[in-house]
Amino acid sequence: MKNIILCGFMGCGKSTVGRKLSRRGNMEFVDMDRYIEEKVGMTVKEIFAKYGEQKFRDMEREACRELAERNNLVIAAGGGTLTFPENVETLRRTGRIVLIDVKYEILCERLKHDKNRPLLQVENRNEKIRTLLDERMPLYSRAASVVVNGNFGSDDVASNILAILH
Fold this sequence. Notes:
- With 166 residues, the chain is an alpha/beta fold.
- The protein contains eight helices and five strands; from the N terminus they run E-H-E-H-H-H-E-H-E-H-H-E-H.
- The chain has a five-stranded parallel beta sheet, with helices on both faces.
- Helix 1 packs across helix 8 (154-165) and helix 4 (53-68) runs parallel beside helix 5 (85-92).
């Protein structure tokens, strides 16, 4: 079976929805950030701090290539993964890319206490979310073959994705 690749902004629910999709579809769930962390033995936050964003993006590109070799996966792509055309093309070869679209206000609420996402550890978090969202949404939209409304609970979002893909 082909893979389902979930994309969208930080906090849109890729991991939560992905776990539910994998159970319902009898597929293996892979959170790309966790996959990288396990492979290198460091958290994303530690990778950013020690090596910088570019090194993390290189690791992410390699993870895309490795995961594209496998089948029957639900992959929660990192928030920046599908902003790079090479990653989009790699993952498209193996499955369908689904964008979980969530409103700005809901993202701000979901991310207000986050301490793990390196790009959000700034003074004006909501302004950073707005800037990144404005940069990334057009890229996510181009990458995705399917867009679902993610403003609802994860059960509803997972059900909508399954209904669209099957």
